[in-house]
Amino acid sequence: MIRAALLPLLLLSSPLAAQDSSAPLSAASGGMATATATSDGGSVLSPEARKLLGAEIRAVLMAHPELVAGLADGAMAPTDAPLDLYKDDREQDLSVLDRARAALTAITPEGFGARRPRQTITLFVTYPCPDCAMAERGLRTLVAEVPGLRVEIRAAENTPAARSLRALAREMTPEAFAALRMSFYTDAPEEETDDKAEDIGVLASVQEDAVLFHKLGLDLAPSYVLPGMMLRGEMPTIVLRRYLDK
User: Fold this and answer.
1) 185, exposed or middle or buried, with CB in 10 Å at 0-12, 13-18, 19+?
2) In the chain, % of residues over pLDDT 90
3) In the chain, what are the domains?
């Protein structure tokens, strides 16, 4: 109770608080501290009033030294950590990424870069998608600059184009396959272009990609999955490089 009563006195004893005072301050001794009006409608305690107020505060502190003892040893310092409004969402995202790590980083014929990667970026794409083409070009540049980096391409949607590419990936050279995928980003076929695109294994694997895309909470192609984070929309290589370096 004493501490609660002392706080207003301490606040009012500061010059700034005194300038904001708009009413007379009643002193503990029963006297009246006068206030002088200012041109802006506020008031300033007179020198006599401030001297009286200071004396009253000193008297209270001398009678109750425990009020300031806590300040010296830090007992009154706030101990609670800052409130993290996104902690639960972030921990949930990381949990989903941990469970999906094997599916995200598995080496496939559709990926490119290091065969024994130290880091993997998974790029979810769809067809047609000009931004996906820009994203893949940027990642190919990044792979050439960052040793140990691999990029894996996954289908954001179960479409004929995605199934056709999955079926052809093992039958074409990496260069020819990359050129074909780039053409699909511009002009995607509406029907399967390979007989094997309807195979059970192809259908299942593309569907698994699409399901994983939505399980991760993603809704935009291209989207990137890096170690410990997800990014929506096409990103400049300099931004991706900064995240990889963290």
Assistant:
1) buried
2) 56
3) 2-73 (no CATH), 87-245 (3.40.30.10)
